[in-house]
Predict the 3D structure of the following.
Amino acid sequence: MKLYPLFADLKGLPVLVVGGGSVARRKVAALRDAGAQVRVGAPHIDAELARCAASGEIEWLQGEYAPAWLDGVWLVITATGERAVNARIAADARERRILANVVDDAVLSRFHVPAIIDRAPLTIAISTAGAAPALASRVREALERVLDHAIGPLVALAQRHRAGIARRFPDLAERRGFYGWLHDGPVLKLLRRARAAEAEQALLDALQVGASAPAKGSVTLVGAGPGDPGLLTLAALRALGQADVILHDQLIGEEILAMARRDAERIDVGKRCGGRQVPQEQTQELMLAHARAGRRVVRLKGGDPFVFGRGGEELAFLRGHGVDCAIVPGITAAVACAAYAGIPLTHREHAQSVCLVTAHGKDAAETLSDAMLAQPRQTLAVYMGVERLGMLTARLLARGRAPDTPVALIEHGTTPRQRVIAGVLRELPMLAKTHAVATPALLIVGEVAAFAHTQAWFGELVAEARAIQPQPVRMEVA
């Protein structure tokens, strides 16, 4: 079926919806958003529609369908669930030259309601001509993941200055080039950062000059999460799709890198515990050089850029050299790995706080304060501590942690290689040695770690110690 795509202006126009259930309610909501005057015809309507009718937001035609319901309407949508009734309404509408949609019945329908992506004033409609609405929804979901949420404000800004743009660029090719600059240049970036006034001024400045500004490089520090590609944020996916150059850590998996632009240049900058290390200064100089060459650079980091990721150092360096920068947070390892192991980092009966620490570096573990190590009712999440488990265990025991404090080592968290080794503190070094735990691995210490015995749901669980269940703690209120 070949359909003619059409966006209808229904503002102030009467539209009929036949049916009073949940499907009708959804159709009414969309029509009201478009400004239509909605009539609902049905013997009974659900509570939300009844509220709208009582407040005068819609008109309720109570009873069984009658042809008079079609008087004066421009469109009709029928969602009665009864094909004979739907067919009668569709036939009556056809006689009156009123377009009708019958929910889930492409044969009876004269128009189809598409899946919608709303970036007002930009609207994208997707239709399968009623053949497979569920697949249209899947396409919509895929586009939602990559379509920038700032595109709506950009379209609105272009709409406000449309006449000025046309006057300044009477040549169509030049005008297209300017719109390309609007999308790819500083205006959209400023809108992403909720700097609407600066974005408009950038557009006005470019109009005054009479030509689009030259490409200006930028760097986006992107958190890729701990490994599962499904944990990337929408903003991270968009940044990868726009990047000219990607500087990535060795821990970034190929599945994540495959989500980037196919022609983007990839540069491995190391940053793997126990592996090859590219000096931090060299990484920063690479980012600076590519940005100054007008390229869009993504610095792709495992976890979150600002949690043991040296993102703060890189941001300060780049800003100090006048480079345009943005940050896309990622899910840090402690949050993601604990969740994939079934371990709540906080729990109202067992842990009221969580402390994130790193044991990476020559003196890092030795300088951890006693308050960090021995705080009661606190979960301790230790990054990059596999090589110092013996020393960490000794310090925790010396500072008052009970020998049977539950612990969990989460190796290759959130990936298909994930292992959770659960036990107790006194056995921690032995557990790591016995099972040859290797980096990357996260250590969780505290009562909540015992939940791994019963709640681990992803990957392999190795429970060497007895399944210690956290015992409820009675909270005394003074």
Observations:
- The longest strand covers residues 37-42.
- The chain has four domains: 14-113, 151-209, 218-331, 334-463.
